[in-house]
Amino acid sequence: RCGSGKISKRADSRILNNKLLWKQTRDLQVGDSLVFPVDSSIENCVYHDPEWYFLVGLWIAEGSLTAGKRAVSFDMHCDEVDHLQRVRDYYGKGTINVFNNQSRLIISSTNLANKLSVFGNKSSNKNITPLLYKLCKECFMSLLEGIITGDGYLTHKRSYRSINSASYLLLWQLHSYLLKFGLVSYLYKLRDTGQCTIENRNYVQQPLYQLALVYERDKEAELRIKKIGKARVKNLLTGNFLITGNDVSEESDNKTEIII
Q1: CB 137 within 8 A of CB 45
Q2: Is it the case that residue 239 has pLDDT exceeding 60?
Q3: What's the pLDDT tens digit per position in 149-171?
Q4: Distances (CA, A) of 25 to 33, 45, 56, 123, 202
Q5: Beta strand 63-66 with 71-77: parallel, antiparallel or unpaired?
Q6: Tens of pLDDT along 45-76?
Q7: Nearest to residue 23, comparing CAs of 31, 33, 10?
Q8: What are phi and psi of 111, to 5 degrees?
Q9: I need a labelling partner for 83 at 20 to 30 A (CA). Which of 75, 133, 235, 245 fits?
Q10: Sign, CA torsion 156/157/161/163
Q11: Beta carbons of 91 and 49 less than 8 angstroms apart
Q12: What pLDDT does residue 183 have?
C-alpha cells in the first residue's frame, strides 16, 4: 500500500502496464482503497458544450485578467495563433495581436471575466473545482485538451504528453478525474519554492508539478476515450488499479461485484 494513498509507480501491486485492474470485492484486502468511476448516467453535462470547456481549459493554462478585470487575455507563441482563433470564433469577439514571438487574444467582456475567474486568476491557484465530477466524458476531455494545448508537451521519447503547472490542486483534480475514467496518470513534484534570476533581477520561484498522461502510451486507451459513451465502466477498467479515499474495511461485502 502506498502510504499517502496515491497511485505511484512504486505501487506495483496496484498498477500493471499503466492500467487499472478490475477487481471484485471478495478479492480486496483491508487497507486497499478504491477508484469509483464517474456515474455512467452522466451522459450530458448540465451545460453540454465541448468548445466552451476547451476555452476554459485554455484559460486555465494561458489566461489572465486585464483592463481592471474587465477583459480576458490569452497569451501563446506566435505559431499558435490558430488556437486563439478557435477561441475567438467560438466566443464571437476578440482581438488577436502578434508581436515578436508572442500572440495574444484579448476579449473585452466583464461577463466572461467573471465566469472564468472562478477557475483561478493566477497560475498557482488555477483549479476545476466548480466542474469536478460534473462533466460528461466528452466535455472533460475537451477541457483537458484546452489545458494541454497551453501547458502540455511530449515526454519520454514522445510516447505520451505531460502537463506542467504551479497549481498542485489543479493537477491532482485532473489526476483524480482521469482515474474515474480508468485512465492512469502520474503526479510529480518537479521543484520546490526557491529563487531564480532573470536578466539580473531576482524572482521568487513557485513550486512546479507535472502530470504525466501515461495512459496515452496505450493506443487502445485513446479509442476507449472516444467510445466511452454508454459503455459499461467494467469493460473500461482493464488494468491494475486502486487509489485515494474510501478505504476498504473488514465489513466490506465480499459477494457484491463493484459495478457502477
Answers
A1: no
A2: no
A3: 999 998 877 778 999 999 999 99
A4: 11, 30, 38, 41, 55
A5: antiparallel
A6: 778 899 999 999 999 999 999 988 899 999 99
A7: 33
A8: -60, -45
A9: 133
A10: positive
A11: no
A12: 84
Q: Quick one: what percent of the chain has pLDDT higher than 90? A: 41
C-alpha cell at 106: 484579448
CA distance 118 to 85: 24
Please tell me which residue, 8 or 23, carries the higher pLDDT value: 23
Query: Which residues does 13 contact at the CB level (< 8 Å), separation at least 6?
Result: 240
Q: Is the pLDDT of residue 242 over 80?
A: no
**Cβ atoms 211, 162 nearer than 8 A:** yes
For the entire predicted model, the pTM comes to: 0.73
Mean pLDDT of the chain: 76
CA gap 40, 83 in Å, rounded: 31
